[in-house]
Design goal:
The N and C termini lie far apart (43 Å). Helix 6 runs antiparallel to helix 12 and helix 11 runs antiparallel to helix 12. Strand 2 and strand 3 form a beta hairpin. This protein has a three-stranded antiparallel β-sheet. It is 67% helix and 4% strand. The chain folds into two domains: 94 residues, Winged helix-like DNA-binding domain superfamily/Winged helix DNA-binding domain (Arc Repressor Mutant, subunit A), CATH 1.10.10.10; 138 residues, GntR ligand-binding domain-like (Four Helix Bundle (Hemerythrin (Met), subunit A)). The protein has 246 residues and is mainly α. The chain is globular and about 50 Å long.
Amino acid sequence: MTATSASSRKTARRPTPPRTEPQTPPAYSAGERPRSLTAQAYEQVEEMIVKLELAPGSVISEAEMSATLGIGRTPVREALQRLAREHLVVILPQRGVLVSEIDVKRQLRLLETRREVERLVARSAARRASEAENKRFAVLAKEFAAAARTGDQIRFMRADKEFNDLSLRACRNEFAAGAMGLMHGLSRRFWFMHHRQADDTDVMATLHGNLARAIAERDEGAAQTALDALIDHTEAFTKVTVSTDY
């Protein structure tokens, strides 16, 4: 890791003021997250993009992000390459990195694909999850319930991230996991931009809680039903709230 001088911190550009929240993941998921520098850089930048701290269309650079995070440029570069594979950023040679724009028509196509793949993920996780993973799904169901009661968007978003990662591990299908891994970040960012305007955190958290509970109970049928209800809600909101001519 390279040291960052006071002067370089002053010149590093940020689309928004520095975050006031802790940089470490929340306690309920810290034990399960990888701790390599690349993973830390990915987790932090991905959350900044999803929470719109790095706005769509913003141009950033490896040097600026390295100074912001206090992490060396090589791990940051690797994190940005992963984010590019997930379509959250576009790497522009000789110009830096562009945070991808939000395209509503593309989002609807993503939901169409996500429904089919995530049905498989949900059923497979319900069937194949280990005992330890089942216990974690049960804990996450309670975490979603708490987020629903309080309307805490950040708590929901972080629980959703852990739920997604856990589902992909528990399904024991690297092909389905690979496909879903490319869609989760875009889905979470779209929710954070549009769903919070409707103040439906309680609904989204409840729907996620139902899915986590069904998987924890190893009920494949209930897991698919809960997943369909979640996608139905998301798709209906997208069509009603935002014009497809956007």
